[in-house]
Amino acid sequence: MTSRERVLKALNNQKTDRVPMGFSSTPEAINNLKEYLNVKNKEEVFEKLNIDIRRVAPRYIGPKNLIYNHDLDKEGKDIFGVVWRFKSNNYGKYPEIVYSPLANIEHVEQLEECQWPQLEWFDFNNVWKQIEKVNQKNEYCINFFGGNIFETSWYMRGFEQTLVDLIINPELVICLMEKICDFYISFSEEIVKHTRDKIDIVCTGDDIGTQRGLLISLDLFRKFIKPLHKKMNNIFHKHGLKVRYHSCGNITDAIEDLIEAGVDILNPLQFSASGMLTPLEIKKKFGKQLSFQGGIDIQHTLVEKSVKQVKNEVENILNILGENGGYILETTHNLQGDIPPENILSMYNTGANYKR
Known about the structure:
This protein has helices at 3-11, 27-37, 42-49, 125-134, 149-157, 159-168, 170-193, 218-238, 255-260, 279-286, 301-304, 307-321, 341-353, and strands at residues 53-55, 59-60, 66-67, 76-78, 83-88, 93-99, 122-123, 141-147, 201-205, 242-246, 265-267, 291-296, 327-331. The protein is of the alpha/beta class. α5 crosses α7 and α7 (170-193) packs parallel to α8 (218-238). The two termini are 18 Å apart. The relative contact order is 0.14.
């Protein structure tokens, strides 16, 4: 069974030879794994861990004073005019916004005066070359980043100001999010056009959850954000793509709305968030409508527990979320630099060897 077959069968709740596995990480965690495994690059790490999914992105050929990287591993001004700088801690460095280009505008008309990314800034032919390269040894499940609407809007406008806009200046925030949505639809369709039916999953998201509940009211989510994701997802489905939606935190109250908006795969399942459904509850309530990706805790389990304890927790998640398929083994967010490589290997080895 190829990796692509394994993932797609699982997403269709069909039997697979083993659980499919994904991977997300900070550069520091990858470097730790390369050293621990004595390998040279990220692809070799993936092969050692039996990762079934690969991500592709068009090559950026736009203005040289801007950066494009959906993982934001470079600092500078991005394609939306947002300026990012790195802030370091004991385990790594993380990008933070230091300038939002739309922070001081007041009227919808001013949006037309702003910098907007152009499709001509990307070499979409390069995506097919990436797919050919990664599929030399195996046929992998391929995904790409298809956009975050609410997050990009507050990157450009400022977080606090965007929340204020939702109440007192909704016309501005609606227009802003619509422009972002339309760009990502066009961007994604260009990727699909150049990939000869070899892409299976489009990754979208908008962090709408906190450690205690939703970041904004459900009413505001339904009014402003949900319709735009539904618009995107309808188009993605027409191209035969599965839609993966990412939001950290406790998003229990929004799950039914996400299903209505066309989400197929929910990620990253932060079960440690206060009030979040348990693995058993989420599988029982939504397992026939959603597939799941994530659920292995990076805040406590992988950082603090022993190799054996990690194995036991992974097996518990597989017993519940992996029942009758519908699950991709992964973590509740990027693997961090403070996670022992032994625990990461324990997680993935458990997935590779697990038998119900």
